[in-house]
Amino acid sequence: MRAIVMADLADLVPKHQVNLHSFADDSQMYLHCRISEASSAVSQLEDCIFVIGHMSANNNNNNNTSICKAHNVSIRAESEAPLIV
Q1: What are phi and psi of 37, to 5 degrees?
Q2: Domain assignments of the chain as residue spans, ordered by start
């Protein structure tokens, strides 16, 4: 059995053009995008999360999904303001 280690995430996440921030036992994936690109940004994140889940399952690693969170933060000052997904 082999758990996903930070090095695995650091290699995998950027391949999906997703940003990764890690500190201690917390990892956060995020994207900056315009509101008009939000749907494709969410798809990118979903694809990345799917691959991580698949890789975890292949390594018999059970992730604690009960502590996983998804946040959608937006700035609505103008229609093309940046959006963090």
Answers
A1: -105, 5
A2: 6-84
